Structure formats: structure tokens, C-alpha cells
Target: RNA polymerase sigma factor
Amino acid sequence: MIDEIQLIEELKSDTKKEQAFRALITLYKERLYWHIRHIVKSHDDTDDVLQNTFIKIYKNIHNFKGDSKLFSWIYRIATNESITFINKNAKRLQTTNEEVQQLAINNLASDVYFEGDEIQLKLQEAIATLPEKQQLVFNMKYFEDIKYKEMSDILETSEGALKASYHIAVKKIEAYLTKN
Model:
């Protein structure tokens, strides 16, 4: 197992960059896939955003300063790419981000890659009713069990604010599921 410092050095090296990047993809591809999937919902869209994320990482690794963990930096890129994707879709469809998310949820039931049942679908509907930041915090905590400290690095927000966002999100989801 390659350590993070060595991986970063190799990613920034002209001679070892390709091999190190393949190792990075192997290391993070699945976790990033599910992180992005919880945001954009669709498998095909997730693949596109994941590819864009890795391209951005590859092109910008030399800008990584080491102020946070490599994992946090990569997740921030994946999160931003996901949000950018949703914003572009909303603009292209001349609608709101919320409506784009609702459309994605409506399409989940017919998505051959969606393995959830009716309860999972209801949970996704409830999550889609949350403001963007609460969605991100809820998904990271509930589905990925990311610690508040790491989340703080990824979203560049205080741990206290994240805890409050998560608590509020849980209450809103509970209320939605009770009503629907």
C-alpha cells in the first residue's frame, strides 16, 4: 500500500505520474463513484462526472498544496464537479436545480443501475427536498460515514455548522417520510 505523501510526490513527478495516477484511480474510483452518484443520481451522469473529476485531478495535481488530505482535495473536486453538472443541466433545460434533481429522482425508478427498493426511492425524494448544502452533508454522513473533520476540509465549512446542517437535514427527512 502506497502512502499518501509518496503518492503525491509520484503524481507530481514527470516519470511516475501515469503509474501513480492509475494507482489513485484504483484507490478512489469506487468511493468517488458513490459520492457523485448520491448527488447526481443517474449512473450515466455519474460516470461522466467521475471522468471529469479524474481529468481535473490529473491536470491540477501540481496545485495541490497539502493543506488538507489528498482525499479531501479529491472529494472537493468531485463535489464541485457534481454541482457544476447539475447547474449546467438546469441551465440547459432552462429550469431550477431542484427541478433537475426531481427529474433525476423520477428517472431513478427506471434506472437499471438503481438497486434500491421503494423505501430507498422515498429517501432519495426526501433528500432532494433539502437545500444543496444539507443534501451534501446528509449524503456524506449517512451514506459514506465521512467524519465531520474531513467533511469540513471538503466543504470548507466549520464542523459545528456541518453538525447543525446534518441535524436539520435529518429532521426534514423524517418529516417528509412521515408525511409521504
